[in-house]
Amino acid sequence: MADFLTSQSEDFSKWYTEIVQKADLADYSPVRGCMVIKPYGYTLWERIRDELDRRFKDTGHVNAYFPLFIPESFLHKEAQHVKGFSPELAVVTIGGGSELEEPLVVRPTSETIIGHMYAKWIQSYRDLPLLINQWANVVRWEMRTRLFLRTTEFLWQEGHTAHATQKEAEEETLRMLDVYTDFAVNEAAIPVIPGRKSESEKFAGAVASYTIEAMMKDGKALQSGTSHFLGQNFAKAFDIKFLDENNELQFAWTTSWGVSTRMVGAVVMAHGDDQGLVLPPRLAPIQVAIVPIWRKEEERAEVMKATDILYQQLKDTVRVKVDDREGFSPGWKFNDWEMRGVPLRIELGPRDIANQKVMLARRDIPGREGKTLVSMMGLSQTVTTMLDTIQQAIYQKALDFRESHTYDVSTYGEFKEAVQTGFARVWWAGDSEDEAQIKDEAKATVRCLPMDQPGGTGTCFYTGKKATEVAIFGKAY
Predict the structure, then answer these.
(1) Assigned CATH for 407-474
(2) Pairing of strands 423-428, 98-106
(3) How far is 345 from 450, CA to CA, in rounded Å?
(4) CB 399 within 8 Å of CB 371
(5) 343-376 tens-digit pLDDT
(6) What pLDDT does residue 349 have?
(7) What whole-number percentage of the chain has pLDDT above 90?
(8) Which overall architecture, per CATH, does domain 7-271 show?
(9) What single string gives the DSSP state of each residue in 50-81?
(10) pLDDT score, position 1
(11) Which of 26, 184, 303, 473 has its CA 20 to 30 A from that of 48?
């Protein structure tokens, strides 16, 4: 199967599109810009969803659901918000065969409808903080689409919280940024740079936006999660007020934050290779594939019996699948599981059974180097340990790649060369006009101002002014 996959070095974009389809993650919908998420891809999304949901609940959040349709007038209550989203809106004007009195916007994000409901639910400081998340679909009428990365309709979670003080809301914004960072590093095995968005790149209507930025294998950046401090902008627009401890009426302070099915694309592009997907074990729908092997029909019963014994040993510890498909050679099955990115493959034949051993093949190390002959005794522990090793190895490989493709530059000439293959790390004192000029000339944007700053001062590579912050620039999806 890998023979039919375009190599990353030949055409990374084509490789990505092919692998998403060949690995059975998704397919195109008859509606332009939409996708059908296939069972294997949806299971990967469920793994992402469940790990994030656990973290949200551990930090005191609860799930709810809000309507898909939003009165158009709601979006006009917050000026920056409607300006930011107007080009992407899908609007319903007819319902039940009749023209609607007020057009309805198909949810691009839910700050407005949730703000309306919070104004009804919040009366006193005792009602705060209000910490709600929803898992939903949203629609943004994108002009250029790509499976998982940018689609007209996509799945996501969006957290929306309300607080009594500015300090609490700002702490919540950064707490959720930390949650996203923890998930990306420890589950998706993707090294990310948490940081603040520039003024021109922040969320429409936010006071401050924060992001986790990841580098893909083509050197481009992928914004993988965002957390926004909304100040009192939406509270004032939707009249979210409460009586404080002194019985004085105050506007609430709000936040919003989200991760979408774009994270599936991030996993694909951060780890995949020319043989297919390389999935981190903690997210992989199937962690271990057992491939029974026999040449003579009389060997089949013995091999399948031993296979079932192995399966019973492993099924309560790892997500394991026995490949008992008829009519396919072992070699074809090996290639198929490699394409699907299953972290570990177990090969079992008559000779292995006689020796009480099995062959383990690591997906992250192709070929003979990734194969190890191990004892059947204690196999469950061996497999668990190896999956942990693979998880760390995948992360380290991605981190090494990012570090080797991040360049400290001090001139605009060096900058334009750096962003062709990776990130440019620079001292930055420019404004929105400078950003726009750089974007036009070099096709690169400020990905973030990292939370981890070096301190001190430097000279801005573009303006020559004194700078107190370092920025990460890069080309982005």
Answers:
(1) 3.30.110.30
(2) unpaired
(3) 39
(4) no
(5) 999 999 999 999 999 999 999 998 899 999 999 9
(6) 95
(7) 92
(8) 2-Layer Sandwich (3.30)
(9) HHHHHHHHHTT-EE----SEEEHHHHTTSHHH
(10) 44
(11) 473
What is the length of the chain? 477
Q: Which residues make Cβ contacts (< 8 Å) with residue 253, sequence separation at least 6?
A: 162, 163, 164, 165, 166, 168, 169, 230, 231, 232, 235
The backbone torsions φ and ψ at residue 414, rounded to the nearest 5 degrees and listed phi first, read -65, -40
State the Rg of the chain over Cα.
Answer: 25
Spans of the chain, pLDDT less than 70: 1-3, 79, 81-82, 84
> How deeply is 62 buried, as exposed, middle or buried, from its count of CB atoms within 10 A (0-12, 13-18, 19+)?
exposed
Amino acid of residue 130: L
Please say whether the beta carbons of 460 and 467 come within 8 A: yes
Alpha carbons 184 and 392: distance in angstroms, whole number: 13
- For residue 464, CA distances in Å to 92, 127, 329 come to 50, 50, 64
The single-letter DSSP state of residue 359 is E
- Residue 29, burial from CB neighbour count under 10 angstroms (0-12, 13-18, 19+): middle
In the chain, domain spans: 7-271, 288-401, 407-474
Q: Give the phi and the psi of residue 278 in degrees, each rounded to 5.
A: -130, 100
Which is nearest to 358 in space by CA: 376, 345, 340, 344?
A: 376
* CATH class for the region spanning 288-401: alpha beta
Answering whether pTM is above 0.70, one says: yes
Mean pLDDT rounded to a whole number for the chain: 96
From CA 448, how far away is CA 322, in angstroms rounded? 44
Q: Is 242 exposed, middle or buried (CB count within 10 Å of its CB: 0-12, 13-18, 19+)?
A: buried
Structure tokens at 459: 């000279």
What number of other Cβ atoms are within 10 A of residue 41's Cβ?
24
Is the CB of residue 278 less than 8 Å from the CB of residue 271?
A: yes
Strands 130-139 and 62-63, by their bridges, are parallel
Residues 6+ apart with CB under 8 A from 400: none
- C-alpha dihedral, 221 to 227 to 233 to 234, nearest 10°: 110
